[in-house]
Amino acid sequence: MKSFEVLRDAAESVGVKALAARLNLSTALVYKWCQESMKEDPGSSGARNPLDRLKEIYDATRDIRLVNWICNQAGGFFVQNPEVTKEPFDIALLNITQRMVTDFGSMLSTVSKSIENDGQITPDEADHIRQAWENLKMNAERFVVACEQGRYARKR
Fold first, then answer.
1. What is the residue range of 115's domain?
2. Based on the domain organization, do 100 and 136 belong to the same domain?
3. For each of the chain's 156 residues, which pLDDT tens digit applies?
4. What global pTM score does this model have?
5. Residues ≥6 apart with Cβ < 8 Å to 87
6. Is residue 33 part of a domain?
């Protein structure tokens, strides 16, 4: 789905006029955001919308925290599609399982250190726990994707 389609559907769910009023913008601008904008065609009726602009910011910075922040604001989190390496069967299986065990240990260590110093977990410590959890999930997802691709099936 293209960004203008996502924005159009979201705007229609609350009403374009209501959305424009909530954002303190003109209805015409919100309507333009909901139309396709062609960079190469300055005469196209659409306007670059906030979703396109956010993607441009991400493309320029490659800072995943932007995406994580948006996901967090929506009550969720972002899990990046893993890159599965093409190592030999035994090496790949050993490496990924070691990474998952290491990441799990790192997360537990982060939790333990957070609690042992004062018996509580502060927001900064929770951020560190979240990062350790995200690393663990990414490596576990890499493992599952590799399994789905048949990477750990021995050739006979």
1. 89-148
2. yes
3. 899 999 999 999 999 999 999 999 999 999 999 998 876 655 566 788 999 999 999 999 999 999 989 999 999 878 777 676 666 666 677 787 888 898 889 889 888 988 888 888 999 989 888 888 888 888 888 888 888 888 777 666
4. 0.56
5. 95
6. yes
